[in-house]
Design a protein that fits this description.
Blueprint lengths: L3 E5 L4 H12 L3 E6 L2 H10 L3 E5 L5 H15 L5 E4 L14 H29 L3 E5 L12 H21 L5 E7 L2 E2 L13 E2 H13 L4 E4 L1 H10 L4 H8 L15
Parallel strand pairs: 1-2, 1-4, 2-3, 4-5, 5-6, 6-9, 7-8
């Protein structure tokens, strides 16, 4: 039976690793990303794969890319993964509204634009799964990552509510919450506890998606820590995380 998936932000990092992993499992893929050169190279390496240049900040472009992928692969998508994301450190004492806007547009609206493009067909067919790559950082507001944490929390809330609403219609929704994964986006960080390599993360995610899991989180120690922090009293949380606000960032490696 043919299985088709569409992945945004597929030219590098978790998106690229997921494309390779799902392809190895027999999925036909439509890969969406802005960097056409990387996308073309990856698509050429994988069988039954098409690469479509697309900026997820543009709702019409996402809709057109999804229709193009369906046309080229010969049918609708069984799985859609909103993976495109950016993360730029955001310090309150030097707040940059342009960076904040871009994170909201890519992380939150980019996910919603893909949702808008694929979920109506899934509802009509009473089949399919939508997944969003959020983050363990969405469990609580983290100093120096206020906007990133906010966007990932917004993704989690949207996906959770959608999961409940779409379940009776036989459309699955999965929240993916990675911890630190070695990707171009995270290379700016000088300290990343419990770091996973992208291929390992992709295999774990693919396993969870194929089992129909509602939430996929990793690594376990970081998941336990961030979930526990949700119940830590405010005063204690403030004292525990104040040092994190001073974390070291390699600004030469920031990706916007």
């Amino acid at each position: 039976m043919t299985k088709r998936a569409v992945i945004t932000g597929a030219s590098s990092g978790i998106g690229e690793a997921l494309a390779r992993e799902l392809s190895s499992r027999g999925w036909e893929l439509a890969l969406l990303a802005r960097r056409a050169d990387l996308l073309a190279k990856l698509s050429a390496e994988l069988p039954r794969t098409v690469g479509i240049e697309c900026d997820v900040r543009d709702a019409a472009a996402v809709r057109d890319a999804v229709r193009s992928g369906e046309s080229q692969l010969g049918g609708p998508f069984d799985l859609a993964i909103a993976n495109a994301g950016i993360g730029v450190p955001s310090f309150a004492f030097e707040f940059n509204v342009d960076d904040a806007e871009q994170m909201v547009r890519v992380n939150v609206l980019g996910m919603m634009y893909l949702f808008d493009a694929v979920v109506p067909s899934m509802i009509e067919r009473r089949a399919g799964r939508f997944a969003g790559v959020a983050s363990l950082a969405g469990h609580r507001g983290l100093p120096s990552s206020s906007v990133y944490s906010a966007t990932k929390a917004a993704m989690q809330s949207f996906l959770e509510a959608s999961r409940i609403e779409l379940s009776p219609l036989h459309v699955g929704v999965t929240i993916i919450n990675p911890g630190f994964v070695a990707t171009p986006m995270t290379e700016k960080n000088k300290s990343m506890p419990f770091l996973w390599q992208a291929p390992r993360a992709a295999k774990y995610i693919a396993d969870g998606l194929e089992r129909g899991k509602a939430v996929i989180e990793f690594p376990l120690p970081m998941s336990i820590l961030t979930r526990t922090l949700r119940f830590v009293p405010r005063a204690l949380f403030d004292r525990m995380t104040v040092v994190y606000a001073k974390r070291k960032i390699d600004r030469s490696k920031l990706r916007r």
